[in-house]
Amino acid sequence: MDKVAVVILNWNGEKFLKKYLPALVANTPKAAGGGNVSIIVADNCSSDNSLQLLKENYPQIRTIVLDSNYGFTGGYNRALAQVDAEYFILLNSDILVPQNWLEPLVEFMDSNPQAGICQPKMLSEGVHQQLSIAATGKEDISGTFIPADSVGKEMFEYAGACGGFIDILGFPFCRGRVLSNVEFDNGQYDNRMQVFWASGACMMVRSCVWRELGGLDESFFAHMEEIDFCWRAQLAGHQVWAVPQSHVFHVGGGTLPNNSPRKLFFNYRNNLLMLHKNLPTSEGWDAFGGKWGNRNLFIFTRMCVDGLTGIAYLLQLKWSFFTAVIKAHKAFRQMKKETAVTLPDNRRNSPYGISTKSLIIEKLLGRNIRF
Predict the structure, then answer these.
(1) Can you give the pTM of this predicted structure?
(2) Predicted local distance difference test score (pLDDT) of residue 371
(3) CATH class of the 2-250 domain in this structure
């Protein structure tokens, strides 16, 4: 059994593999924490030349070929069922890793058995490239050189930043990114911290926790699945941490652009499904810092807020975004009939990392919404 298995789920990502695999191979040690480290690419039935690229240039990398595109959730579930390691690292194909990215994660997990999941600091690969080009006059993809004059000027990446949280209505945010406001990294979040969720773009998981939870929920297909996974892990008694002593650079939106109505659909539908699964069902629960009565009342309140954002899209003449919200609610109402709660109320642990404030209300009031 390996100590660590770094697993990339690939779907038509030839350009990302070509650009970022060299740094991953160069900067990932062959051994860590007293055991072997393996790099694996699981292919979600790509139609480009990804597999040919791997065969010709990376014969040392194990390839798992799936017979269909099972999405992020199904792809990883099927791939990791074929991997034997103490720790799994789910790594996006559009991640640039520098030297010493892996060791701090392994050291932290080895020293903190209560932690089931962790993530590194997630920085913007685009901003990093601009800084490297400005300093050297050429593109640097090794990830091993950061110009001295760029210290403090790297920017957090939207999807994960320095660890995730959710607000009182279930909307996710991060240390370093609240709503669309993304901060520059000046070392302000360099302390290790327990968080609510870790980014699926680069997430380290104990394999025993992965198997205990049954992996990712395949009904999500893509988006919010890692938040649901981390919530379920916390309910089962495992902690989630951000370990900024490790950092990686993430492109973001590599598979589905951030301004895509389809992405909006998944985010709205899956967020409601996540709330339905993981909120307590009993009357008078106090999980979010205030008594909402019951789960159904909470979700109704959240859907009303979603409706307001849908109206805002309509007023902006963004018809496809407005219909995405409507379709997401319709799909959720169908899916919840077949979705059971994660754990009974009397068996669940209290999750960490839930804000008592609403991001949307704070924004409407014009208040400072930095972390």
Answers:
(1) 0.91
(2) 81
(3) alpha beta
